[in-house]
Amino acid sequence: MKFVSTRGSCAARSFSEIALEGMAPDGGLYVPESIPDFRPLLPSLLGLSWEDLAVKVMHAYADDLTELELRGLIRQAAATFSNSKVVPLVDIGPCRVLELFHGPTLAFKDVALQFLGALFEFLLARSGGRLNIVGATSGDTGSAAICALRGRARIGVTILHPEGRTSPLQRKQMTTVLDDNIHNLSVQGSFDDCQSLVKTLMNDLEFKEKHQLGAINSVNFARILAQIVYYFSAWSQAGGKPLSFVVPTGNFGDIYAGYLAARMGLPVRKLVLASNANDILPRFFSTGDYRRGQVHHTASPSMDIQVASNFERYLWHLQGGESTRALLEQFNRSGSLRVESPDPAGLFSAVSCDDAQTLQAVKEAHAQSGGYVLDPHTATAWHAARQTGHLGSDCVLLATAHPAKFPDTVREALPGVHPRHDILDRLETLPERCGRLANDLEALKDVVNRNAV
What we know:
Layout (H helix, E strand, L loop, with lengths): L2 E3 L9 H7 L8 E3 L9 H4 L4 H10 L7 H12 L10 E3 L4 E4 L9 H19 L3 E6 L3 H10 L5 E8 L5 H8 L6 E6 L3 H12 L2 H7 L1 E2 L6 H17 L5 E6 L4 H11 L4 E8 L4 H8 L1 E3 L19 H9 L1 H14 L1 E3 L9 E5 L2 H14 L7 H13 L6 E5 L7 H7 L8 H4 L9 E3 L3 H11 L2
Parallel strand pairs: 4-14, 5-6, 5-8, 6-7, 7-15, 9-10, 9-14, 10-13
Antiparallel strand pairs: 1-2, 3-4, 11-12
Helix pairs in contact: 3-4, 3-10, 4-5, 5-6, 5-10, 6-7, 10-11, 13-14, 15-16, 15-17
């Protein structure tokens, strides 16, 4: 399998190359040249363990690794999860929930990032190289990346988060990690400002080459690849029946993995995109207009995003390289672009959810499920499922975080309910270390220059 850039002006690369490189040199994102057809294989995938299923799905893309090498990395990542299924499918009455929060930071990002941490260390040991990760987070990516990469040889990590716009527990999961290779920065701005700084830095090819910069955000296709697996796992755990998936997403990465799974032949009835008040993606799927707006601070902070990185990959599948480049250049100039047929296959629905509706969804789910507690991001999925008429037995909500990460929102919706987890309780007394950064590219370069391995 080879990978090409969405901007269309780079030579094709292998999986191992694009995993270390992150973004393409022309500023694009890597996408697979072709999508493997898994329809003939589906019967053989039913009932497989997470490890066996992941090897089958991931090796179709990561074919420059041996199956034995890939299995070792998958096993190492899965060992950090508290549930043997890694992502158990749970019946909560009106629908099912795919619990993606049994990893060490209690968020869905662990599924991909624990694998990616192991992969990075393996590839760097093999090549004798080094890697400096610079990433932006709206909440869970940063803590999951830090947990996956702390103390690993040949890797330095700098994570940017918007000051005051992550939950206190999300912040502490990052800033209480004091390993020498970990550097946290709070940025005076929004997540989109953080993401823009990282993208601009990555596009400085001389600086990127000097410090061997890599990406841990979902711009790295290796993360998408690991996420594809849990769509297959949900289907297998449901006995092989066609399913609709309702996906809380701000950066379009989690649902893009579902889109690829559907393109691979997984029997997906519908992909329902759940957004909070930052509704750039629902507006696109309803009108074809993709237009940047003001970032709203909400009860589901990991989705407080107006520019979705992985949307570029979806554009590439719709338009091809030259058209994608032209559309994104237009977007960078004007803050908007238009696509006449945003969903030609009729696969997507998209719904936004404000904070009042999020709280109501937490209440409804708790009442109708006999006491199951949703975190505020997963609550947007409940709302979207109900609004689109998909809240039924063939509906799977992707539960992206443990509710204990957002205790204030849960208590507001459910007075007297106090979600807790031992992992989070231990953070209370730990010291923190975090620098502050102006929304300034040169200031970021100075930090990376000082801290690079």
